[in-house]
UniProtKB/TrEMBL annotation:
Annotated InterPro entries: F-box_dom
Classification via Gene3D superfamilies: 1.20.1280.50
The protein, known as: F-box domain-containing protein
Naturally occurring in which organism (per UniProt): Hydnomerulius pinastri MD-312
Domain (F-box) ranges: 84-137
Length: 476
């Protein structure tokens, strides 16, 4: 008789109920013809009993049932043998989202739509991901059927619309207008058809007019509705960017009825915002809701002309039209105090704004400026601006030259300016020795006067140590 040693067992977790198990007769030695059949049956019975008496120590090692075995086999084949099913849904969605802005020009639609045609699993994963659909890019050469299908899928969520320049953007805007109730953000790149785009977005297209027919001819007033008929109940952000429009009718603009919850307005074109907000100021209902306003004037190189800069009278008239405005962002030289630059519309507001001095806009709490101050335009603009916005709580200076003028103005005006200022952010300005000196001197004066000392944050300080890249220079 041969005892079963641990190394001879089927597994280290198996325990035999008997030490004497006759295995060598059936494992190592062949059966002899001289052995009686009854003896063989007896030995087989004993062996079967011993095998059945084996106990499994690890509860995780169990014999799978035929049902679970077939299920695991199907899962194994689905996840291993088919390359299209090897990635889990969360990884697939990350890959899809990385290319969400990709589009094809061959009429097949966006990448998000192409994904849904690959297989049922990809279609299910793609249609369950809002990031693939909620940002809709509208270009003039996009097929109308592709845009309609995209908007239909995206209408399950709130949609961000980006309307680019193109010959057919007014036609696409008419398609977008049919989903006005699901749109929360609109970005428009002005072109020669900007007025037609806004008419289609606000006035809509009469039901008798097929939007596809608008591509066959230039739109006329008869192609659009008689007045504002579309409402955007969730529209909170409106941005109009790009070059100067060749034609612009400011009467066609969003108001309190078409966009009742609009809070953020960006007019990244000086001629556009001057015409819109000054010649035809927004309705009181719309102005009451705006809390963030971005004004930009970033010409494509070359010196600035007088027509590209507005006077401080018109600038103050613009800001005073928004009594609930809290955040003001200015990019480029959008305002000037140079007497040589005169706008004939100054006479219209002179009765209300005789002079910029002494006027305070206390409702504006945050100011973000980039490229606002230029030597050839103004040298005292920074001090005058801080005088108008004397209740600022946060200032963000976006470039070195802007920071230099602003900090110099703070130092010259004294520690009593901007008493409620709690945060001053300098972007890329810490490399200038004069700026560092002026900031330290200004902060020290406020400390000595017992006034509130703002937290000064410096971002991208490329001339200092790496561990100072985000610090509080009030402690330096």
């Amino acid at each position: 008789m041969l005892s079963l040693q641990p190394q001879d067992r089927l597994g280290s977790n198996l325990v035999c109920s008997s030490e004497n198990v006759v295995l060598h007769r059936y494992v190592d030695a062949p059966l002899h013809k001289s052995s009686s059949q009854s003896a063989i049956d007896t030995e087989l019975g004993l062996l079967s009993a011993e095998i059945q008496s084996f106990q499994i120590k690890d509860p995780e090692i169990v014999t799978p049932s035929p049902e679970s075995l077939s299920s695991n086999k199907r899962a194994f084949l689905a996840n291993t043998l088919q390359p299209i099913s090897r990635l889990p849904d969360d990884i697939l969605i990350l890959i899809f989202t990385a290319y969400v802005y990709s589009s094809l020009d061959d009429g097949l639609g966006t990448l998000a739509q192409i994904i849904t045609f690959v297989c049922r699993r990809w279609a299910s994963a793609a249609t369950s991901c809002p990031a693939l659909w909620t940002r809709v890019s509208v270009l003039g050469d996009r097929p109308p059927a592709s845009l309609t299908a995209h908007l239909k899928t995206a209408s399950r969520w709130l949609i961000d619309i980006e309307i680019g320049p193109g010959m057919g953007t007014f036609k696409h805007a008419a398609q977008v207008g049919t989903y006005a109730a699901r749109i929360c953000s609109i970005t428009i790149a002005p072109s020669y058809a900007l007025d037609h785009v806004l008419k289609a977005l606000i006035g809509g297209v009469p039901g008798a007019v097929d939007p596809d027919s608008l591509a066959e001819h230039d739109p006329t007033d008869s192609d659009f509705g008689p007045g504002p008929v579309l409402r955007y109940p969730f529209l909170h952000t409106l941005s109009i960017t790009g070059p100067d429009p060749h034609f612009w009718d400011p009467e066609w603009f969003f108001d309190a009825r078409t966009a009742p919850v609009l809070t953020s307005l960006t007019l990244a074109n000086l001629l556009l915002w001057r015409t819109t907000l000054l010649t035809h100021p927004p309705s009181s209902g719309l102005a009451l809701g705006i809390t963030s306003l971005t004004l930009s004037n970033a010409p494509n190189g070359g010196p600035l002309s007088a027509t590209e800069i507005t006077t401080h009278h018109l600038f103050l008239a613009t800001l005073s039209a928004f009594p609930c405005l809290r955040t003001l962002h200015m990019v480029g030289v959008v305002v000037s105090i140079t007497p040589l630059i005169r706008d004939p519309r100054d006479d219209d507001v002179s009765a209300r704004l005789r002079s910029g001095e002494g006027m305070v806009l206390p409702h504006i709490k945050e100011l973000r400026i980039t490229g606002l101050f230029k030597k050839e335009v103004d040298v005292g603009m920074a001090g005058l601006l801080f005088g108008w916005l004397s209740h600022l709580e946060k200032i963000v200076l976006g470039d070195e030259e802007t920071a230099w003028y602003a900090v110099r103005a703070l130092a010259e005006q004294g520690e009593t300016m901007l008493e409620s200022l709690g945060c001053l952010v300098l972007l890329g300005a810490w490399g200038w020795a004069e700026t560092r000196k002026d900031v330290r001197a200004w902060v020290q004066k406020r400390k000595e006067a017992g006034m509130r000392v703002p937290c000064v944050e410096v971002l991208w300080m490329y001339e200092l140590e790496r561990d100072w890249e985000r610090g509080d220079i009030t402690r330096l």
